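Example 3.2
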Amino acid sequence: MINWKKDYETGITQIDDQHKKLLEIAGSALTLLKNDLYIDKYDEIIAILEELKDYTIYHFNSEEEYMLSVGYKKFLSHKVEHVAFIEKINNIDLNNLDRNQDKALLGILEFVINWIDDHILKKDKLIAG
């Protein structure tokens, strides 16, 4: 399981709760990756990607509204990172994912976990001041 770390706390309950949900989605991807009972995981991977994309868009919108409401000065550079994340998810090669499901899922999972870890610790924590 992918665990929440105290270091991730921004002190903004709404944002922290949304980050926990993103980690939960990543956790479901990890559970699927470890499940050897599925021969073909494609449909499950697509469902997780859709959930990740939908929830991430919701979270980014919410976080951006918060940043604007408090006059966060690095809003635009922060938003650029959000846009890049969504583009990366949108540009996943579904044919490659279908051919190499576990390898592709592992790559997606590593990207998401590394991004969440880096983004929360280096960018989101700055929002709270």
